[in-house]
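Limitations
The structure tokens in this dataset are predictions for the assembled complex, not deposited experimental models. Users should treat interface geometry with appropriate caution, especially where small molecules or nucleic acid strands are included. An illustrative entry is reproduced here so readers can see what is and is not provided.
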Amino acid sequence: MIRIENISKSYDGVAALREVSFDVGKGEILGLVGPNGSGKTTLLKTLVGVVRPDSGRAWIAGVDSTEDALEARLHVGYSPGDPALYDSLSVLEILEFAIGFHPQASLSLGKQFLDLFGVPLEKRAGKLSHGMKRKLLLSQALASQAPVLILDEPMEGLDPEVRKTAEKILVEQAGQGRAILMSSHDLAGLERTCHRVAFLREGRLLDVGKLEHFLERASRVLHIRFRESVESARLPVGKEWTWKGDGLSWSLHTTGNLEAALACLKGLPIASCRDASGGLEEVFDALYGEEKTL
Amino acid sequence: MLWRQTLKENILLAGGYFLLLTLTTTLGIWFWPDLRGAIEEWAGIASFFPIEGLKEVMLRIQEEGYWAYFAVQQFFRGGGVFGVAAAGLLGSGLIAREADNRTAEFLLSRPVSRTRILLTRWGVGVVALSLPLLLAAGVGAACSPLVDESIPLWAALAGAVHTSLFVVAVFSTTVWLSARSTHALQAAILVLGFMLLQFALYLIKVLWHFSAYNLVDLDVMLPLARGVYPWKESAALLVWIGVFVAWAVKDFKKRDF
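Predicted assembly:
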């Protein structure tokens, strides 16, 4: 549904995007990750024609957005990274304005989302908090009923409860066949929602792939508490295993698969076992440390 | 939607402009009997000022009477001064305010073309600037019998149409600057500074031919009372408008936000 091919963009000679290429399929959520200034927002703006790329092409629902941005935008529900809105308009007026250009949009659906997020319809946008503006922007993007959702930091400023609700909605939307491309600094949130992740750094695509593929790179750690004190000599030994701790509390670090690690614990007096494996955050640190470029 | 949003953002400015025009028109008419009774004294006072334009205006009022006075009040002051100020303030924010307020990303990510955004907003601006001029001219024509004068409604409205073209030309220039600027204030200062220079040129006898105010001065407006519409000047203003609107569209279309 989204195809990006060698998109490059520079501002006053400084490269913001360097030949970025990836795609997002139907029913897929792709998380765009990178530190500030890595080019995430520029890339998303390029896809909807707010910024013109210097070179490269992008397709949205089969439409070349670099050639016909207007036609491409008809297929996109977009939530900007900057939650700036027309202060003199009410929430309802902004919703009407935002979705009014989408032929397939549903005002009642937009109102339902706003109601779900607790955003009052009559309140002026200028009086809304940062989080409320985010909710309004997310609601209008969802209400557009477009087959592609492009969301620039949609969870930023949302409280944990609303964030979970929003994540659940996004997963449902993907389940209905929508392609979702979203940038975020919330790596734990991306782990909960995304099928694939793309990492950007200084305008370059460092890596893109399935979430599981990245999580497998993270360290595997099990925190184990025994019912009785266990000496190190009693613990199983393996090439891929390292034990840390003593007595009742031990951590098993493994670079192999978790199944084999769990199997080796058979016969030990385990009181509790907790998975403390690293997630995307650890992958992020590793990637940005080694600067692996695709 | 676009027009409604633009109107809502600028309704206070447009309303204030209309009230100012109507109020000054009414006050101007109310003051006319005093001026009519002492026109030679006023002309004498004006002759003390080293401003050729002012002397010229007083002379024309002495010669042509109420219509010249009405034209100065309604068109030169109403359009050329208040209208230009309103055009500068309204036009400067039309696009640049989106960059100022960081709403450009929200607006431009909608499935609507930049040409349509600009032309719709420009259209709302044209109505907001022209309608008050037409209404104020109508009010002026209707109030004139109260001071024992009369002016043909046709002439008042035709003068307002021509003045509107001048105001819209200034507005279109401001819109072009707004489409290129990152701050609304930048566009406003540039255009109002330019128009101030034009006004200053108009007041200097040897340079007044180079001023844009020639297009709306008494030489242009006085023949209206005899049913002669300034087609040539109106055509020049239409060309001015067309050029700047086309430039504004072109520059807005290729701009990154």
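Some entries come with short summary sentences. For this one: Chain B is about 80% helix and 0% strand.
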